[in-house]
Write a structure and sequence with these properties.
It contains 8 helices and no strands. With about 160 residues, it is mainly alpha-helical. It has 2 domains: about 15-80, Arc Repressor Mutant, subunit A, CATH 1.10.10; about 90-140, no CATH class. Helix 1 packs antiparallel against helix 2, helix 3 (about 45-50) packs across helix 4 (about 55-70) and helix 6 crosses helix 7. The longest helix is centred in the N-terminal third of the chain and has 14 residues, at about 25-40. The radius of gyration is 28 Å and the shape is elongated. It starts with 12 loop residues before the first helix and ends with a helix.
Amino acid sequence: MPKKTVIKPHLSLDEINKRIRRNRDMITRQQLRVIKYVMTGMTQRKVAEKLGYSPAWVHTIIRRYNNDGPEALRDHRKDNPGRPFRLSSQVRDEMKALVSAPPSVGQLWTGPLLIEWVRERTGDQEIDPKRGWEWLRQLECKDRVTRRRRKNSYSAELRSEAKVS
């Protein structure tokens, strides 16, 4: 028989039910349901099956609730600001001004051309080759060279057959 999970009495079952009905955030409501079901006697494995979570995630939710109280039951993804920009704001501003005019080398900006400029400007040689194209898109640079499309020979054959018949 599985060991009974202990839930600290931060909130009563009635208060948890009220919070489930009141709360508009779906993540918080689901996490409150985890606590509710465990308080009513369900095992962590059954709660995981019922709500579509893994047993490890149910255990994490219960641990957060026991350690930090009901305030810990929320969407924690909002706390993650993401990775910081690789380029400083000064270099990004220079890049924006740079792509507003045609390059001195050719007629249009390309991803590799922009990467070459950034490497010269910053000295960073470990820039992924796809970043140049991403930067051009982020800067909304309309004057850029797009990749040539390969003609599909099969669709060309179908069009020529349609014209004949």
